[in-house]
């Protein structure tokens, strides 16, 4: 007999809660998919989501198994049966624990399989769940079971039992944390002290064990004979009073609504009192536990409690289908709907009036911040009621979120009969809707368009459902009507937001013609590229197993270096011929792959090493031609690329060798220096302006937005982070085409602004103008306000691009100055007293420091102390001559965008001459190499 009772009770609990179990499992999968879609790291987030959902299921299941018997009135039937309380307690507890463990195992296995199989992440991860970090959440699930069973045994409504269990669990955790702090040093303990044997973990396990022991004791006394009559009389009295009161309702509208209000209050005052008390206690608890806690927990707590209150709006009528009574007596369904909302909205308003001042005073010491903007941006300090949610006062934001939570809760209350399931569903809907509100706030969408309609159509759905609900009509049309009342407004809302997202960005052009840009890809330019690639194919590696790219190592073993150069004579000649050509292209629309540029870099190494050989042999003209060829190759490598840094390393290497080895050679003459300076000035005019890199990046990003396979393949090879999320990006881009359209508009306008800035900067630097930039060069818009996740997928470094271009310009100009100074020293036996003496003699005019717009600072006799200069971390000895640029002095003044840098560049005044080494160390010093000793032949 006991076995039969156990089996049948298990089957009953399974039939009652299997839908809840399946819903939690499916919702877990949906939340994991949502995390995957927004690009978060899934490896740990998936496991944490699964654990949190298991905890919520444990709480709901445990709070339901006993309280539902009283809610449905079946406890009277059980009291009449010849069974003891322990015979029913054991299977119910067994099912609660077993189903929780089964859900845990299912979700853990499913999550591990998904991650290991790369089904969502596109990456095969051989990983195991982070059990050490999961222990605290697992203990939370055990606590939820213990407290849920306790209140389920004591209360008559599962939803109220679940709320009290959650509150008791939180208070228990806080109490254990306090005791743990007293037991160990405050310096070594935090609530996140998660070692398995820590006082915090042991205390929570002990408290859960005590509650379980109390549950067993209560379960043994769950169906005492002495309480049968009292319970029956109480149930009959409550049911009879409610129905009698309802039956006396007259048809006069005002009288009827007042009676319905009184009826709802009579049925729900205990539930209202419990929820309000829980809300007040938790509010006081969160307001005093830590000085920063109220600001972080006040709004989520208010939203959660209001959502639960909303889930109770129709709870009393759902019990034992009491709503049928209204249909039998022709009570207007929408009057019932209105009376329920009036009672619960009044309760919520009273609760908020109690707790909001407490939060405000504890969190801010004043009520005034409730009228402030929570996260003001420049130009947004004044609160607005018609902009985005972030522009509204904090008090109004709280009202909007509370309205969303209540609307979600009341919808779940009417659609779901079980109170605990309705509460769970209400919380989930609230989370989804509040997530939507946060997304709209982050994207700065007008809240009146994107958020305000949601409570309206959720309330409208229950308003339309009320007649069918009262009449207990559950056919296809009644539920189709509910589905349409939710789906049609949702589609209209999503469509309006999508349109708003697109038209929010003005339609402008990119500021250049992509067709004209692509016309640079001429057959002659492609032929030059192919010449480089053929030379790279003929390139012979050094037989030494160490890297042949190490030029310093190669030059030490001179005989073998000569043999290596002789073996590469053919590719060297082909590379020199290619470098002499004017046109070359390595990437238009789809940038040249790095592997091709690395192969050209090997040719730069070959050419530079041959230049050093010729310098060693005294053939200075031929050596300079090799260095000049390397400089031309660096220009070819950066043509039509979206990064000004392509080839800059070889350019810097060539200029360094030119200054430190070629210039001070004993056979050097002023005439050779003159010819070199003329060639360098001609080469400098071929260096691409920064605007070309911006145009190349525009074409590249346009290809990515068009989902071009060639562009996506290049991005996957160049960007490992994008490779892991490429499938997600393509999927979302196809799913949300309006974001692609918006991204195109953002890209067009951003490119136009940056192009204007780059062109003005190029003209300013080359012409030495000190006027302010035109307004179109820097007056853009708030990129945080108009951001788009599509472009955020790819790194945007235009300000870095302009800074790099300025730096390379400074290096080239400083190299020309140093070369001219060496020519003067060769001609006059000493350095000039001022840089102005070089004008006309070696330079047509002095190059200006691109950072300050003034002349470079010249120290022919150095300074009295050792100077640490910018660059490779080198030093300049005391009294050693050098040329100084203001570059380092402005590093801290760079704005986070190119426009800010341009404004600074236009506003900077004349940099005073200082001889203080600490001041000079903040700039960029270029040491003047001393004459080299004669080289032995």
Fill in the keyword field for this structure.
937 residues; 36 helices; two-stranded antiparallel ribbon; 2% strand; mainly alpha; three-stranded antiparallel sheet
Ranges where pLDDT stays below 50 over 5 or more residues in a row are 119-127, 185-197, 225-252, 290-294, 544-555, 772-781, 891-912
Q: Which structural class matches the secondary elements?
A: mainly alpha
Count every beta strand, where a strand is a DSSP E run of 2 or more residues: 5
DSSP strand content: under 5%
User: Roughly how much helix do the residues carry, as a percent range?
Assistant: 55-70%
Query: Main β-sheet: number of strands, strand sense, barrel status?
Result: 3 strands, antiparallel
Distance between the termini: 112 Å
What number is the mean pLDDT?
76
Annotation field: number of helices: 36
CA gyration radius, whole angstroms: 38 Å
3D shape: elongated
Structural description of this entry:
The chain is mostly helical and 937 residues long. It is built from 36 helices and five strands. Strands 1-4-5 form a three-stranded antiparallel beta sheet, with helices on one face. Strands 2-3 form a two-stranded antiparallel ribbon. Helix 6 packs across helix 7 (158-183).
